[in-house]
Amino acid sequence: MLSHISIKDFTIVDSLELDLSKGFTAVTGETGAGKSIMLDALSLATGHKADGNQVRPGATKAEIYACFDLTSGSPVKQWLTDNDMDGDQDQLILSRIITSEGRSRGYINGRPAPLQQLKDLGEQLVDIHGQHAHQMLLHKDSPRTLLDSYGDYDQSAQAVKQHFTDWQKIKKQVERLQNQSDEVLARAQLLEYQVQELDLLELQENELEALENEQKRLANAETHLLSAQQALHLCQNDDEQADAYQALQYALQKLDPLFETSPALKTAHELLNQAYVLVDEASAELSNYIDGFEINPQRLQHVEERLNAIYELARKHKVRPEELLPLHIELSNELAELKGQDQSLDELLIELESVEQAYIGHAQALSSARKKASSKLEKALLKQLKVLAVDKAQVSFKVDDQPIHNASQHGLDEIQLLVSFNPGQPLQPLNKVASGGELSRISLALQILIQQGPNTLIFDEIDVGVGGATAERMGRLLKDLGNNKQVISVTHQPQVAALAHQHLLVNKLSGKQQTRTQMRELAPDQRQQELARMMGGLEISDLTLAHAKDMLVAAQG
Fold it and tell me: Per-residue pLDDT tens for 185-239?
C-alpha cells in the first residue's frame, strides 16, 4: 500500500510530506484548491509522461517520492528479484525528478530506472482512476483477466497456457524439420566425413608434443652418439694419444713431490685432484650413455609418418596442429546436434496432433466457462452500477470464438467489455464511450465484485453528478472496499467524505507573489468543520455543524 508521498516544487506545491493509512481515505477541498495534485504526482512517480511546466515557477526541478509497504506475498517482490533488484525488502520507493527544461529521471529504491520499469511496477502497485489517467480497465487483456478472476478460472487459464507452450514447442520442431534445406543436409554429410576422418586419426591429449620431442631425439641420434664418443675419447682413451685424463695424471705426478714443501702449490694440487676425479666420473657417464644408446630408424619412420598425418589433416582443416583435438570435439558436438534432429517427421506430426488437440480441449472448456461467467458478471455489474447512479447503463462481456490460427496462450477467445450509458446508444468498447467519472464507477463496481488487481485504488471525483442517498451508498461501497484494499478518493460529497477512515484537506494559499497548495490530515473536530463547509452556504451555521456531526456519528455505525 501507499504509505507516504513526498512532493517538492511540483506545480503549486512547494513542499508536501504526507503519510497515508490503510482503509478508505477521502481528499476534499474547495474547487481549484489542487485536490488532484497528489494523483498527478503519483502518476509521474509510476512512469507517466512529464512536462517541464509541472515544475513550480521559480524552481529548477520538481521531486516526487512515493513509498509503498510490501507484503510477504506481493508479486512486486518477485518482479524486483526477476529484474536483479533487491526483492527482500518490505518497502519500495519510486521517485521521479523533473527539470524545468522538461527532462526527467526515474528511480527504484534509489537506483536509476527507465520509465517503463516505473510503469510496470506502478501497474502492480496502484490503480489511478482519474479524469485523464491511464487505467488498467482499458487494457486489452483486462476483460479476460476480470472474467477469469470472477469465475476463479486462474488454474484453468494456467493449464491452457502450459498446453499452448507444449504445442508451440512441438510445432517449431516440425517446422524446422520441414524447412530443413539441402545446405543443412550437405553440412551434416560433410560433418559425418570430417568426424570419421578425425576419429580414424585417434589423436590423444598431449600426443603431438610427445611425438615432436621424440622425433627430434631420434632424428639426431647418430649425431648425439658421435659427439658422446668424441667427448669420451678426449677424456679417456686406450691408445697412446694423450687425453684429458692422462694430462691431469701427468700434472699431478709433477706436483706430488713439491706441494708439501711448497705450500703455495697445495691449492693447485687439490684443484687438479678434483678435476681428475670429475673427468673420471664424466668418462663413466659417457660410457654408460654410449653403451645404452640405441639407434632405431624404424621407430623414427613411424613417428615421422604419424606426425605427417597430423600435419596433413591440420592443413586440410586450415588450423594449427595443436587445434585439431578441440576441432574434433567441436565438429562431433555439431554432428550430434544435427543427428538429434533425426526424429521421424511422421512421429513428430503425430505428437503435434496430440498436443494440439489437448490445447483445443482445454481452451474450449475455458471458453465455455468464461461465457457462463460473463452472463453472471454482467448482471452483478449492472446491479452495482445502479447503486452508483449509473442506472441507464448496459454492459456486455462479449466472448468471441477465434479460429485455431489465432490461438494464444490465453485460449481461443477474444473478449471485449462493451457498454452503453444512454438509452438507444449501441454497445461499444469501453474506451470509446466512457467518461472519466463513468469509468471510475465501473471500475469501483468491478473492484467490489472481484477484489483483484493492485492493493491501492485511487478515484478522482467518482461521485460527480450524484448526491443524497446515492452519494452515501457510494461512500459505503468505498468504505467496504477499504476493508480489503487501500482506497483514496477525491470527492465533493460530504456523504462520501464522512465515511472515510482518514480525511485529508487541500487548501490553496494565495499571497502577493505566489500561490501554493497544502494538504493535511484532519482531526475529528476539523472533519466536522469541513463537512459543514461541503454542505454549502456562505457561512457555517450551528445547523450545518450539527448535521455534519450526525453524519460522522452515523458513519461509525
Answer: 788 889 999 999 999 999 999 999 999 888 887 777 777 777 877 887 888 776 6
Maximum pairwise Cα distance, the chain: 148
- Quickly list DSSP for 19-73: E--SSEEEEEE-TTS-TTHHHHHHHHHTT----GGGBPTT-SEEEEEEEEE--TT
Residue 372 contacts by C-beta under 8 Å, 6 or more apart in sequence? Answer: 151
**pTM more than 0.90:** no
| Polymer length of the chain | 557
Q: Where a domain ends, among 434, 460, 494?
A: 434
For residue 276, tell me if it sits in a domain: yes
The DSSP call for residue 435 is -
Among 413, 434, 455, give the residue marking a domain's end: 434
Residue-number span of the structural domain to which 359 is assigned: 135-161+355-434
Is the Cβ–Cβ distance between 518 and 495 less than 8 Å? Answer: no
Residues 334 and 405 in one domain: no
| Alpha carbons 143 and 400: distance in angstroms, whole number | 12
Residue type (1 letter), 33: A
Find, among 336, 409, 32, the residue nearest to 188 by Cα: 336
